[in-house]
Every structure is written in structure tokens, then in C-alpha cells.
Amino acid sequence: MDFLHLEIFPLLIIRFLFNLVSAALVVLLYARISRKKEFYFSYFAISVAVFLLVYLLENVKLELGFALGLFAIFGIIRYRTDAIPPKEMTYLFVIIAVSVINALSKDYIGYFELGLVNVLLIGVLWILEKALMLKQVDSLLVVYENIENLHQKKEDDLLADLEIRTGIRIKRYQIEKLDFLRDVAMITIFFDVREQNSKREINQ
Length: 204
Fold this sequence. Notes:
Blueprint lengths: L8 H25 L4 H19 L6 H14 L9 H19 L6 H20 L6 E8 L10 H12 L3 E10 L4 E9 H11 L1
Antiparallel strand pairs: 1-3, 2-3
Helix pairs in contact: 1-2, 1-4, 1-5, 2-4, 3-4
């Protein structure tokens, strides 16, 4: 066993740095839409581990089967802590995909083509997040007893009271039912899910 393979070592360093930059771009994109910092460490660690594992074991001649096996392994992993939300699992899949592509493509495409593949993958992810992702609006039905605020001239007071009681920034509301006998009203409030989740993460 040689101490150092001069023909392999420079290529390993270049590919490693290239993959690290790509992983950093994915993590930065994720960081712009989420404050779950615990995933930053996981994504970087998994990216480095998968890249080195695939790159150094490529000569085992498993290549495609080995890569698919990694996807299957990470697809069925259940962490002992909280379940991973779908969006975090999507970014995890992208991190693994980028690492495998950067590790296994050295004999097939050049750096320009590899860079283009990475840009396309990350670019599509950015477009889906920023351009095509519509605001996710959810609704909540509440029983409201302060029906004097239902007067048209007191709409601002109604919204302020509902936001104080629910802790939700309300986009719009809809009065479903009025019960003057019991002095209550059924009101559906609509709010931005992503904005509400961001507030919840800050409070945690």
C-alpha cells in the first residue's frame, strides 16, 4: 500500500471542495426558509460522509447499485428523536444526490458539465422555493362571544381581539354563524402557515 497516490489525491481534494461548495449552497438555501439549525450540521455531515464513502469505494464496482443502496438506506432510516418533516427529508435527499453525483461522475463528465448539473439541481430547488411556492394558507374555526365587535365599524377591533386570543396573524376571516340567543359567533380565520411556523420556531 502506497503512502500517497499523487495521481488520485489532487482530484480527491478538488472534488471534495467542489462538493462542499454545492452542499453549502443547498444548506444556505434551506437556511433562508427555515431556522432549524440542528439540520445544518446533519446536512453537512451527511454530505461529507456520503461523498467520501462513494468516492473511495467506487472501485468496488458497485457504482450505481451502491448509490441506489445508499438512497434506500437513508430513505428507511428513522431517527430516535422527532420524525423528520417532509421538507427536511427533501433537502436530505438533495444533499445525498449532490454528493453521489459529485463522487461518481469523475470518469464520465468534466468540471464544466458537473458544475452545470449542480447549478441545475440547486437552481430548480431555488425556483421551487422562491418562485413557485405559493403561500400556504390554513384555517381555524373559533367560537367568538364578543359579538359587539362584529359590527362593520369595529372590524379592526375584531381582528385585534382575535389575534390576541389566538396568537395568530390573521389574513382574513369569515363569519360562519351568528347565535344571538347565546351571544356567540362561529368565525373561520385564515392565516399563513409558513409565517406561523416561523413564529413558533422563534419562540422555541
